[in-house]
Structure formats: structure tokens, C-alpha cells
Amino acid sequence: MEIDKLAWIHIRARKLLGARSRGNPVCYLPGGKREPGESDAEALVREIREELSIALDPASLVAAGEFRAEADAKPAGVMVKLICYEADFEGEIAPAAEIEEVLWLGHADRERCSAAGRLVLDHLHACDRID
Fold first, then answer.
1. What is the pLDDT of residue 25?
2. Quick one: which H or E segment has residue 15?
3. pLDDT tens per residue across span 80-110
């Protein structure tokens, strides 16, 4: 089984924006799953608005990679496919909905992240985009 998810990559001062849900110590990339009939852009704009109280500019979305890893808190063998995008936004990033905390992550923080998040951090570090 594979879970299909979308994520927003946002880097500031060589740190990657991450999020942590209430009651969960694991950090994730902001984003989520598509609703039936939604495009990637529609779903990501909706999820980021719900989680971070900001408005992504759908016209600025740029594909930033696809990563596969074992899903966290799921039975063994369940995989997650994380399709990542970068995009411009308007507003002030603030946790909302199930998000308790937003964090700025460097490569040294990888052990705090989901398996898919660790792959993204490794990739961004190898590309010299984060410290």
C-alpha cells in the first residue's frame, strides 16, 4: 500500500520549514492529501492555508522532487510517496488546525523528522540548499 501526499518546501536562512502536529513528536513537511477531484495545486493551496494560515500562489508552484519512504505510525510495509513543490506565498506563517508548532530544520534535525522528511532533508543538504 502507498499513501500519496503533497508537501510544500520552503527554505529560509538555509533552514527548511517543518511542522509538528498536536501530541506528536515527529516533524513533517507541511501539506497533506488530495481530496477527490483536486489537482496538486488545489490540494496544496488548501492544505497549507489550513495548516499555516497563508496563501500559496498556485501560479508559482514548481515541482521540487518526489520521495518514497516507509510511512510513520503505519503497519510495516506501508509506504508514503511525498510529492514536493516550492511556491511563493502571502501572509504570516502561523500554526493552525492540527499543527501545534512550526520549526526551521537543518540537516542536523533529521532524526526529529518522518522517514520521508529525512529523505527531503538529505536531498536539500546534498544540493547545498540547507545547513
1. 94
2. strand 15-21
3. 999 999 999 999 999 998 999 999 999 999 9
The number of beta carbons lying within 10 Å of the beta carbon of residue 49 is 16
Q: Whole-angstrom Cα distance, residue 59 to residue 104?
A: 25
Q: What is the pTM of this model?
A: 0.94
Beta-ladder partners of 73: none
Which helix (H) or strand (E) segment holds residue 52: the answer is helix 40-52
* Neighbouring-strand partners of residue 68: 81
Render the burial of 64-83: b for 16+ CB within 10 Å, e for the rest: bbebebebeeeeeeeebebb
- How many CB atoms are located within 10 Å of the residue 100 CB? 12
Cell 493551496 found at: 45
Query: Which residue in this structure is represented by grid cell 493552525?
Result: 96
